[in-house]
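Protein modeling request. Please complete all fields; requests missing the sequence field cannot be processed.
Requester role: graduate student
Desired output: 3D structure, token encoding
Chains: 1
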Amino acid sequence: MKAAVCREFGKLLTIEDVILRAPGPGEVQVKIGAVAICSSDLGYLDGAWASQLPAVYGHEAAGRITAIGDGVRGHAVGDAVVVTMIRACGQCRQCITGKPFLCSARHDRGNGVLSLPDGTVVEHGLDTGAFAEEAVVHASQIARIPDDLPMDLASLLACGVITGTGAVINTAQVEAGSSCVVIGAGGVGLNTIQGARLSGAAKVIAVDISDDKLEAARDFGATDVLRADMKGLRKAIMGLTGQQGADYVFVTVGAIAAYQTAPSLAAKGGTVVMVGMPPSGAAMEVEPVIVAATAQTLKGSFMGGTVVQRDIPYLVDLWRQGRLKLEELISRRYHFDQINEAIASSRSGSARRNVIVMDT
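Delivered output (360 residues):
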């Protein structure tokens, strides 16, 4: 099959022939219908996190099952599915306590799912490898979707949507009537705003440096918008929250400056939810006495605390009801041979989500 291979960090991908092995026990093979460009893909393409080259990345995808390995139940060839990077063994402590997104089972991404024609192993990027015509993944990574949900919209449910809405609904468990600040109104930030709206938050305050993104934030449910570089940002947020600060502050960008600012925007007893992923080694400073005195909570949110087979069907239902925006998240659609153009556009920071639509 054809795949977009990363051979050097920070350089263009090359579309070339790659060998994809058949699905083994517990695995499925999926013909990719659409795959979106996520900021996490950009981080791996730049070498920000540990990875071996050559590699095939891409983890925000949807398609149809073409083959099934031994032991897979509840799926059939031809099923339309969302393909995620959340791989769960079902046996470790995290899995059996309802946190499959934190599965501790080790998986070797260089285990031979992908290889070059000369036998060179290609890393199975983010346990998915969806920048390709087909992918082999563990059955825990997929969720069935209805046939009438377009593949380009479905692909967004694999990461950006579940990460943003899940941070609010699953991780923070925002209560109706709460006040929320969302720092960053990009793809994940807009979905965090949607999640706050769906949870019944009384105040949803979007913060960003882009006027265009702030305008989009209003469309997705923000009650108020503020520029991140304005003078008196904290004072403005205090004014919008009855001088209390926000009950929840969501940082959806991987910028340390945003993380440093977040606690000052939260109320006493408030929660800072850490969603955005800075490069490995980047650190924020925390003054413990202030955290203790304000009784604030700093809480991480990985993949929105998502249980794939539970949450994705729920989000599909919300889309059907007209309560979840998906079409509006897509900035542009590209053909597979335009993947480098799509990546370059995503790097610019102006795109909500660029989607590669595969030939079918």
